[in-house]
Amino acid sequence: MSQNTATAPATTIEPDEDRTLIDRLRSMQSIWILGVLVVIVAVFGVLQPTLFLAYNNLMNIAQNVSIWAVIAVGMTFVIITSGIDLSVGSVLVFSSVISAKVMASIGDKGWSTAIIGTVIALVSGLLWGALNGWLVAKAKVPALIVTLGTLSIALGAAQIITGGIDIRSAPEVLQTTVGYGRVAGVPVITVLALVVVVLGGIVLHRTKFGRYTFAIGSNELAARRVGIAVDRKLIEVYALAGLLSGLAGQMALAQYGTTTIAGQSLTNLNVIAAVVIGGTSIFGGQGSMLGTMVGLFIPAVLLSGFVITGVSPFWQTVAVGAILITAVYIDQHRRAAAARGGRARARTRRTASPSEAPAAQ
Amino acid sequence: MSFRKYAVLSAAAAVALAGCSTASSGGATSGGGGNNNKTIAFVQGVAGDQFYITMQCGIEAKAKELGYTVTTQGPQKFDPTLQKPIIDSVVASKPAALLVAPTDVSAMQAPLEQAAKAGIKVVLVDTTVNDPSFAVSQISSDNVGGGKAAFDAIQQAKPNGGKVLVISTDPGVSTVDARVKGFEDAVKTDSKFNYLGVQYSHDDPATAAQLVTSALQKDPDIVGIFATNLFAAEGSATGVKQSGKTGITIVSFDAGPNQIKDLQDGTIQALVAQQPGVIGQDGVEQAVNALTGKTTTATIQTGFTIITKDNLSGEGGAAAYKSSCS
pLDDT grade, residue B296 (50/70/90)? Predict the structure, then answer.
């Protein structure tokens, strides 16, 4: 539901003492998808308890979604503004190429080199993101077209710089410590991703920046009318997505030890699917960081579970596609119910006031 | 969403997980470790490719003979970022041995080392990694020799020489790089031939077709094209058709059903067939040797069969790749 439809019946709720915890949970957009994840985990847990639920396997799943998680944080912001960013995979590759190139030219394999490389990757991602944002906000080119364009340009540029040959000279400290190191049994790369996700969640749900993001996606014109600098915010949102793709590029270097120029081909679609499965509306104005994380884990858990139970990998893509469509169907269903103002399952009443609405997802 | 809700949710998730892990403590032992573990996992470079399917057939046949069961998995694309999660999950399923075609020499190094560390016998089939010392054995075609064989085929078809082009997949794939090198070395020894270099099709037939039509636009007098794998060959054949050219000798690596059909139709003139079935059989043999404490061979190179229209009914036809094992 968009904010304006939600406002009217909203006020009845907050004083409603009878509303139980269950009610409040049920009203959350992402709660049912979390239920789906729990069911999937439980099913595989019953089928292969010793193997699937092994600590190492769970940590591997977490490790394998870490890079996507960082990108997905930025993607959640972008999609909430009712935009899209197809270029994330290419920006990741470009940033890792630039970073690897610089680190190779320094020659030293220590931490200082790794840190310089990280800064380079972040700056590279930020610039690509800012370019996306500027083209979307100021040049008024649709986000789908802009980022489809930068998808090609960034990948092509990476291929020009390298001649298409992967650079494999990332500092070893990066791979041993960040890529495959563990702190307290948790992969370092996952800890890193978790920090980004928590910060992203706080910014999205607890700050003015986050509220403006929701406001723009909900009704851009209204956001302009109340004095939000929409263009600047949009540039900032895309720049954030780019910055995080740059960080993901450095993380990919740490994980794979190579620039994976030919890889990352499905990264953008996988991340977008995760964000949408997680309840973020492709029409903007609605979404949550928690939902995105659940949306990321569903395909990852399915993949791992299918492999361990010996199901053909083709079924994983089928299952993810089906869940994606179901997620959007339910989202639409709830919107329609909310638009009718009925007491339907949507429970739109939870949004207490327009200003609090964005934070209540 | 409020922090309270976060807290509630994470608590719910924790409860759910705890519930599952309780179940696991009393759980079954299916597929677990131990000496009586008779499972062999095979991770392909890409799912649905006839080369890997034929290899899978060889693996399954040999494994059945030796009393082992095989599970096969593969990523949607020949992409290390998609293969790594699969390998991690396969390792978690604790097979006795893992036959794997790594999709990148660097990116797959650490995940496969971890597999070996977990006590799984790792055999590298077809492709390899930077430091394969953890592997029981690596088995692949003599790809440099294969590249040379491809040039020989062009040489035979076009004794007067001319311009030749290579359509490869992606740089950094060890086997394909070796084929290109073998071809390049061979072409340089014959001054009648003018080598136009290598173009990368990223394992996409449509891209290969575009590359070939563009190359023919620039150099209409190309006499021979060497396509380094299945998709590159299918694309090259399409590209030549689109340009309306005839008389160009296309030599392809690999021998999938479409390539055999192209050979019959005269679109492709010769195929350099690898022996994926043999690679698979040898892989299982080496893995089982390692499991039963017998000696293993560190590197094995398998040969080629050159298929032309002439030997298609006999030896050549038998070397063609399969779309399914039955």
Answer: very high
Nearest C-alpha of chain B: how many angstroms from A232?
A: 25
Is the ipTM above a cut-off of 0.90?
no
State the CB neighbour count (10 A cutoff) for residue B286.
27
Please judge whether B76 and A317 are an interchain contact, meaning their C-beta atoms are less than 8 angstroms apart: yes
With a cut of 50, say whether residue A354 has pLDDT above it: no
Q: Does B303 touch chain A (CB under 8 A)?
A: no
CA dist B225 and B236 (Å) reads 8
Please report which confidence band the pLDDT of residue A279 belongs to, taking 50, 70 and 90 as the band edges: confident
Statement: B143-273 belongs to CATH 3.50.50.60 = no
B interface mutation test: which of A21, A28, A29, A50 has the most B CBs within 10 A? A50
Q: Which CATH class is domain A3-360?
A: mainly alpha
CB contact (8 A) between residue A260 and residue B200: no
Instruction: Closest CB to B74: pick one of A67, A260, A313.
Output: A313
pLDDT at A339 over 80: no
Joined together, the tokens standing for residue A49 give 């308890």
Condensed to tens digits (0 to 9), the pLDDT of residues A242-268 reads 999 999 999 999 988 888 887 788 899
Domain ranges, ordered by start, for chain A? 3-360
Structure-token pair, residue B3? 């922090």
CB spacing of A260 vs B81 below 8 angstroms:
yes
pLDDT of A349 above 50 = no
Is it true that B39-141+276-302 and B143-273 share their CATH fold? yes
Q: State whether residue B32 sits within 8 Å of chain A by CB.
A: yes
Residue partners of B35: CB distance under 8 A and separation at least 6: none
Strand order in the sheet with B162-168: B193-200, B162-168, B222-227, B249-253, B270-273, B305-307
CB contact, 8 Å: A22 with chain B?
no
Q: Is A200 on the interface with B (CB under 8 A)?
A: no
Q: Where are the domains of chain B?
A: 39-141+276-302, 143-273
CATH of domain B39-141+276-302: 3.40.50.2300
Q: Tell me the average pLDDT across A99-117.
A: 89
Residue B82, chain A, CB below 8 Å: the answer is yes
Minimal-distance CA residue of chain B relative to A210: B1
- Rounded Cα gap, residues A197 and A281, in angstroms: 19
Residue with structure tokens 């929701």?
A: A214
